Amino acid sequence: MNSQDKVQKLIDLREKARKGGGKKRIEVQHSKGKYTARERIQILLDEGSFEEYDMFVTHRTHDFGMEAQHYLGDGVITGHGTIDGRVVYLYAQDFTVFGGSLSETHAAKICKIMDQAMKVGAPVIGINDSGGARIQEGVRSLAGYAEIFERNILASGVIPQISAVFGPCAGGAVYSPALTDFILMSDKTSYMFVTGPRVTKTVTGETISTEALGGAQMHASQSGLAHLLAKDEEEGLLMIRKLLCYMPQNNLEDPHVTECNDPIDRLDDALNEVIPDNSNEPYDIKDVIFAIVDNQEFFEIHRQYAMNIVVGFAKFNGIPVGMVANQPNHMAGVLDIEASRKAARFVRFCDCFNIPIVTLVDVPGFLPGSAQEHGGIILHGAKLMFAYGEATVPKVTITLRKSYGGAHDVMSSKQLRGDINYAWPTAEIAVMGPKGAIEILEGKALKSIEEREEAQRFIEEKEQEYKEKFANPYEAASFGYIDDVIEPRNTRFRIVRALRTLASKKEMNPPRKHTNIPL
Fold it and tell me: Which residue among 174, 228, 249, 392 sits deepest, i.e. has the most Cβ atoms within 10 Å of its Cβ?
């Protein structure tokens, strides 16, 4: 075979590898509203930037007729490329080859790019579309999963890890995405569960559909497993591109600051009137967020889950930040189990990757009731407290309205090392609301009043007295717990200036192997 023949063989093999499981299987993939693995990579990465590894890898199994079935790449495409010019490593499982099932060599390919990503300090993106472990390989496929899991664990907090689920992801396969920082699912075409509907019915007698058991909508709104929900794969891949623009390449770098054409001193007079006169009336905290961030751009995380708290990414004068805000529009912005877990995980991610945290506070307290207490609200609320207290990134907190009781402490208070804590004139910082406080403080006096009308007048007078003392930010400011009371319309400018001031912040936690966060 001469040189030209050898070159032609290479070209032919590359072409064969790019066809995956063949034309018919690709057509089936398209008929389900799904892209192929290579099409997904093409949409995700900058044009012409993909460098593929291990295109010629095949499996090593000789049982169950597998020796007669060999496909180049063995059901997963791996390599690196760029997103907006920044290097990322990625793998995309190819459902047209053995249903994207994981074999020993399939796993080795994924592990190789994860190891390289750790060496160079670049994010890893996994596109999951797999029938699970390759049964013909037995324990070797299980070992392959465990090799990947270990790398997910070691990479946690070192490089960003993002998982896209664009098809089935079941059994042991679910734990790799669960170990990563963010999971994105596509509506109606993806699902995740440990055991499927058939096994569930056999073991428990419960009849349930695949979508109801582990579909994207369920995980986005009920389990909280899915951080992002896309209407289709193209939207999902573009969301990943957008998500990465808020992150550094690794834990040793700062987030990428971009040029900003939105004036830092832009005033929004509507903010001066956004808080209702009646402190029990709701309003949408997102109206405040959009008003103060660069160009009204806010990338929300967990939009459908625990909607009483809002988390996501934004920029202030081009500086990426993580936003955490109570949502008075949903359950009065109260903290419950789900909200505490949601916010705690987000705060810890930001702290891992040097992303400043801006917190907007309007919280009446923790949700009462036996369901919350029995479900462990103490434990889960402690997670959020722990996350804020542990974080060493710049933390800017603005109290808009209510900040009551233990929830006041939890929401990035000065005592949890909040760097700069501002309040609006409408802020109410107290142990509890006026009604509950008066019932406790004046309980004995109330019992001695026999006439109902007189008792009502007494309550109203005492509540007004309590409001005048505590339903304002000046009591907290007098002790230095609030650094300044600011005009709402100036909020954007004050946050930008605070972030500039804190850019050189250096704070270290005590030396230790790792913390023991309440789990």
Answer: 228
